[in-house]
Amino acid sequence: MNVISLLVIIFIFISIIIFKNNSFYFISGLFLNIVIFIGYLIAISLHISVYLVTFVSFLLMTIVILYWINGRNAKTKLAFICVIFFLVTFTIVSLPLITALKTQGFSSEELIELANFDLNVDIPFSELNVSIILISFSGAVIDGSMAICSSTYEIYTKNPELTFKELFNSSFNVVIEVLNSTIYTLLFAFIASNFALVIYLQDLNYSFLELINSKIFVGELLVSILTGCAGILILPLSCLLGSWILKKRFHTLY
Fold first, then answer.
1. What is the model's pTM?
2. What is the spatial distance between Cα 82 and Cα 76, in angstroms, rounded to a whole number?
3. C-alpha angle 100/105/109, rounded to 5°?
4. Domain presence at residue 60
5. For the chain, what is the total number of helices (H) and then of strands (E)?
6. Among 1, 19, 114, 132, which residue's beta carbon has the most beta carbons within 10 A?
7. How many domains does the chain have?
8. Where do the TM regions start and end (predicted)?
């Protein structure tokens, strides 16, 4: 038994203790997402459209996390609508920026390590770069939307007489509280994920100007910034869209 197998067993054991009867859906949902990711890699290697594979994978992961793990109910339906609306809107808005920065492909620092490999990869790296960014923020977007939609739904069911503005303001108070912790979580995640990279570039005696203009650093920074923006923007969007649906289209959730 290797270390990974032991950690998986410990993870499953802890999940069963904490989640009890719901542990089956939690653990099976995790492995379903792993299967989806493997299918995502296989589909791209078969030269299927990267954008199509990405959106289908994102959709499947959203269905697994919301409907399989959390159950099919009004709250998960509300979160699903918010996530899909955000995915389409954010992709349309951010796509020109990602394309303009041209951070796709390998950097000069990576080419040194890949010198012995064939670099003629028949995959459009510009599309793959967009795909990586969308997949990277999928978890944060789904979790954030579920948290806000659940709180908005509970506020509405306890106080159905609230107007749209009152419901939005009450829900937005929750957004502010969640946002405070989310910002620090994203900051520490960025520092942890890029700490080794900064040390590596420092060993190459890069100046600050060379550092902020290096392709490898800008690429990682772009992913982190867009992931952070997605994780933050989904909160007020879920608050606004969730409040509107609950007041105007509540019957459609059942």
1. 0.82
2. 10
3. 115
4. no
5. 10, 0
6. 132
7. 1
8. 24-42, 48-69, 78-101, 130-153, 174-201, 221-246
